[in-house]
C-alpha cells in the first residue's frame, strides 16, 4: 500500500487513498498549492489539442464539434447584438473560429502562449490575449475551462467576465455540477511533485501535467452571478451545464 512519507499504514473502514492523504496533510499541517496555470502552459507546449473532448486536433471532427456547439449556444442564449465576442480559455481556437463567423470582432483569452500561437494560425483575425480585457462585449463565453481551475478562483474569474458584458449582452459559462475522482487522481493532486511516479504507473508520458476536474455548486454560481438556473444545451460538449446571464439585471431562467 502506498503511504505518504511519515504516514501510518493502518486504515479505517471506508478509507480511500485520497482520504488517507488528506488526513495526513491535515495532521502534518501541509498545504499543497497547485499552480493550474503552470500546468496548463505545459499542456500547451506538449499537446495543445489534448485539453478538450476531441484530442485529435487534425481531424475534421475537432473543428466540426466547435461549429455544432456554437450553433447550439447561439440558439440557446436568445437575441443578442452580434458585434463583439470574448472566449475565455480559447485554447487553439476550436470555439473562437466559428464565433468569428458570427461576430465581426472576436477576442480569445488563454494563459498558454503555445495555445495562443496555434490560435493565431487557426483564427488569424482574432484578438488574442493572456488576460481578461475590460470590454464591453456582447457575448462573454467560457466552456470546458473553469472545471480545470479551483472553484474559489474560478468564481472570481466568473465575476471578472461578468463585468465585461455590454448592456443587453450575455454571459454564458459552462461548468460541471458533478465530477467523479479516482483514488489515483486524489493522490496525484494531493502530492503534485510525485506526478512523474504516478504517470509511470499509469503508463503515461512522464512529463504529462496535472489536469484538475472541479465541480461548481449551483449555489456558488448563484452567489457570484445572482439568482439563476443551469441550462443544458441541445448539443452539450460534456457533462455539466451552461449558466446564462444577461446584463441589465435580467437572468435567463428558462
Could you explain the architecture of this structure?
Strand 1, helix 4 (96-99) and strand 2 (105-109) form a beta-alpha-beta unit. Helix 1 (17-27) packs parallel to helix 7 and helix 6 packs parallel to helix 9 (218-225). The radius of gyration is 20 Å and the shape is globular. It has nine helices and six strands; from the N terminus they run H-H-H-E-H-E-H-E-E-H-E-H-H-H-E. It has helices spanning 17-27, 36-46, 60-77, 96-99, 113-122, 151-163, 183-190, 195-201, 218-225, and strands spanning 84-88, 105-109, 127-129, 137-142, 165-175, 241-246. The chain has a domain at 31-169 and 214-246: Rossmann fold (3-Layer(aba) Sandwich), CATH 3.40.50.150.
Descriptors for this entry?
globular, 6-stranded mixed β-sheet, 35% helix, Rossmann fold, alpha/beta
Amino acid at each position: 500500500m502506498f503511504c505518504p512519507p511519515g504516514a501510518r499504514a493502518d486504515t479505517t473502514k471506508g478509507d480511500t487513498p485520497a482520504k488517507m492523504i488528506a488526513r495526513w496533510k491535515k495532521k502534518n499541517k501541509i498545504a499543497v498549492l497547485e499552480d493550474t496555470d503552470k500546468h496548463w502552459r505545459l499542456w500547451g507546449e506538449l499537446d495543445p489539442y489534448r485539453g478538450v473532448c476531441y484530442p485529435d486536433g487534425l481531424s475534421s471532427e475537432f473543428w466540426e464539434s466547435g461549429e455544432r456547439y456554437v450553433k447550439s449556444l447561439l440558439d440557446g442564449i436568445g437575441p443578442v447584438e452580434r458585434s463583439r465576442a470574448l472566449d475565455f480559455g480559447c485554447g487553439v481556437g476550436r470555439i473562437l473560429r466559428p464565433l468569428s463567423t458570427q461576430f465581426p470582432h472576436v477576442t480569445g483569452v488563454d494563459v498558454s502562449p503555445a495555445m495562443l500561437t496555434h490560435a493565431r494560425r487557426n483564427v488569424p483575425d482574432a484578438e488574442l490575449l493572456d488576460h481578461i480585457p475590460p470590454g464591453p462585449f456582447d457575448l462573454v463565453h467560457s466552456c470546458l475551462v473553469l472545471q480545470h481551475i479551483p472553484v474559489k478562483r474560478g468564481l472570481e474569474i466568473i465575476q471578472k467576465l461578468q463585468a465585461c458584458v455590454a448592456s443587453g449582452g450575455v454571459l454564458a459559462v459552462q461548468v460541471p455540477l458533478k465530477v467523479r475522482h479516482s483514488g489515483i487522481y486524489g493522490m496525484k493532486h494531493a502530492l503534485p511533485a510525485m506526478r512523474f511516479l504516478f504517470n509511470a504507473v499509469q503508463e503515461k508520458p512522464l512529463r504529462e501535467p496535472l489536469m484538475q476536474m472541479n465541480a461548481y455548486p449551483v449555489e456558488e454560481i448563484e452567489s457570484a452571478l445572482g439568482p439563476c438556473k443551469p441550462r443544458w444545451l441541445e448539443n452539450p460538449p460534456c457533462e455539466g451545464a451552461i449558466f446564462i446571464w444577461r446584463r441589465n439585471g435580467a437572468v435567463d431562467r428558462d
